[in-house]
Amino acid sequence: MSDQNRLSVFKTYKLYVGGKFPRSESGRVYEVTDSKGQWLANAPKSSRKDARDAVVAARKAFGGWSGATAYNRGQVLYRVAEMLEGRKDQFVREVAASEGLSKSKAAAVVDAAIDRWVWYAGWTDKIGQIAGGANPVAGPFFNLSTPEPTGVVAVLAPRKSSFLGLVSVIAPVIATGNTAVVIASADAPLPALSLGEVLATSDVPGGVVNILSGVTAELAAPLAAHQDVNAIDLTGADTALAKGLEIAAADNLKRVLRPQPVDADSASDSAGWSASPGTHRLTAFLETKTVWHPTGALGAAGSSY
Fold first, then answer.
1. What are the backbone angles phi and psi of residue 120, rounded to the nearest 5°?
2. At 74, phi and psi to the nearest 5?
3. Residue 254 CA: distances (Å) to CA of 7, 30, 80, 233
4. In this structure, are residues 17 and 210 in contact, taking their beta carbons and an 8 Å threshold?
5. If you count Cβ atoms within 10 Å of the first and of the last residue's Cβ in the chain, which end, N or C, has fewer?
6. What is the pLDDT of residue 265?
7. How far is CA 110 from the centre of its chain?
């Protein structure tokens, strides 16, 4: 049968919450267009209820994910890279359409995003060595500090870099044992929603990453004020929105990662995100636990350990 004699099968994009693919609770959708204004798809327009459901799913998944060994988390992140490699052509098409790139430039972006997963997969069992260690103290004690995940992190994905920037803000959050509620770029949500399909088949437990699409400000406000959200990454917020969200986040002393110049100024070709990411996003959502343990002589008998 020739292509002229068959109907096109349009993809239905859905949210990714708790390891499942629900439509928006409100039933709303909005049109997503390419850089030339041509229709690409209808994306679900998430509601405040969807945001709250995503937080519940992220909290439920936190215990198991944070309790997994760092080595195991690294294996899971590497599996994401493997699955993305197998679906590279799909993401090249979506990134090209979303960001107005040529096929070759979109392919370079997708390759960089896959490499970014591998980068963070390698850091999962090493970040403790640079963010923790033994502390010198004046007394007969061992004093040891170790990094621990903060908890549930709300992430506002970059507005322009729909895939490389997206991966660059999600991967470090979950690599360190946190769980995430991600608000995809409102203008270019399709790569993010497709990433949910990859995560669902990559050994990432349901609820570790939850992906919402819709109006950023509408979804970010309830997440910033939510008492069960422990931190928020404001990468995708403009100056005015970021200020309001930071004020709301102060109510339960959330950790806040403020937008950086690279986030706001990156061109649509993701050039600003292609540089080496460093470790600052890995340490942004870690808490430090310090333990004191006595050492030296004990008791009259002079026993020691």
1. -75, -30
2. -65, -40
3. 50, 31, 29, 10
4. yes
5. N
6. 45
7. 16
